[in-house]
Target: tRNA-Thr(GGU) m(6)t(6)A37 methyltransferase TsaA
Amino acid sequence: MSKFMVHPIGKVHSNENGTFIKVEEKYIPALQALEGFSHINVIWWFSDFDDEQSRSVLQTEQPYKGAPDVMGIFATRSPMRPNPIALTTSEVIHIDNEKGIIQIAFIDSNDNSPVLDIKPYTPSLDRVEKSGVPTWCSHWPKSTEEAASFAWEKEFNF
Model:
């Protein structure tokens, strides 16, 4: 089996001024020409769940209301998974190329979560016009914009 080497390129920071990705100095040149993209795909590490117990969870009891009684972890957005990798599409508010800071509207990570990679969101590769979901979650928002004001707290069993 091949050995994978993954090195964080930065960290997520959230504070009273907003949510930011601080890119490590050696990766700042990789931000060149990112401006102009309204959104980015942020690949980040669920670092708070990077332990043997969390990585061994393969099924979970009904995390969402109305969902099946038991769900495989790959059918959830749970941070507990064999490889605690996360993906969030985020709106770019501002990029400071000199300081290596990207201000974003939202990310569902904790403060100081490691960022593994950033890719520009491009509709030709990232947007699915006719996607399908199970009935139990078909009432969920159809976009990140709608999700911002959705009552998510009513959807979870925890």
Observations:
- The first strand starts at residue 10 and ends at 15.
